[in-house]
Amino acid sequence: MAEIDIVCDYPHSPLKVWRALTDPDLIPHWTSTGQGARAVGFEPVAGNRFQFVAKPVPGWRGVVDCEVLEVREQELLRYTWVGADGEQPSYVRYRLEPTPEGTRFTYHHTGFTGIGGYVMARMLGSVRRKMLTVGMPALLAEMDETGARLPEDRR
Q1: Residue 151's CB: how many other CB atoms inside 10 A?
Q2: Does the model's pTM come out above 0.90?
Q3: What is the rounded end-to-end Cα distance, in angstroms, of the chain?
Q4: How far is CA 103 from CA 15, 70, 92, 108, 120, in A?
Q5: Ordered domains of the chain (ranges, CATH)
Q6: For a Cys staple, 2 with which of 10, 81, 105, 118, CB 3.0–4.6 Å?
Q7: Which value, to the nearest 10 degrees, does the dihedral of the CA atoms of residues 93, 99, 103, 108 take?
Q8: Contacts from 28-31 at CB under 8 Å and sequence distance 24+?
Q9: 59 within 8 A of 83, measured Cβ to Cβ
Q10: How far is CA 109 from CA 56, 92, 129, 131, 153, in A?
């Protein structure tokens, strides 16, 4: 079974990183280095069903159906991921750990099966890596320590 594992260390507090990961208004800012998905109906509450909605491309409708499975504020978010009708869900986990320098963020996506799953994991892994190493640091730099975006003249 294929999976995606990405670990990033950010020089920012877990509060700030959590906010960037879970505020529906902020999510498109770090995902813009990929497909620019918006989290429609997202709340970090177990049982919440939501969608990531992006621009469709050939072979993909532009919608991922998800359900939040587990939440521990500023520590853990787990949710299902279904990118196509009839597809078996795969599973995404965000884990945040405080470090002396800020926060270690671990992205783990598992449940890809077969050759198609292997190909999907490779493609998504590349996109996620760019989002988390380019998009996320850029967004975090535009936020204050409470997790609010700075005014445009201070970014």
Answers
A1: 9
A2: yes
A3: 42
A4: 9, 20, 19, 16, 28
A5: 2-154 (3.30.530.20)
A6: 118
A7: -20
A8: 29/135, 29/138, 29/139, 29/142, 30/131, 30/132, 30/135, 30/136, 30/138, 30/139, 31/131, 31/135
A9: no
A10: 21, 4, 12, 14, 37
Token pair belonging to 87: 């597809």
Residue type, 132: L
Beta bridge partners of 60: 57
Q: For residue 67, count CB atoms less than 10 angstroms from its CB and return exposed for 0-12, middle for 13-18, buried for 19 or more.
A: middle
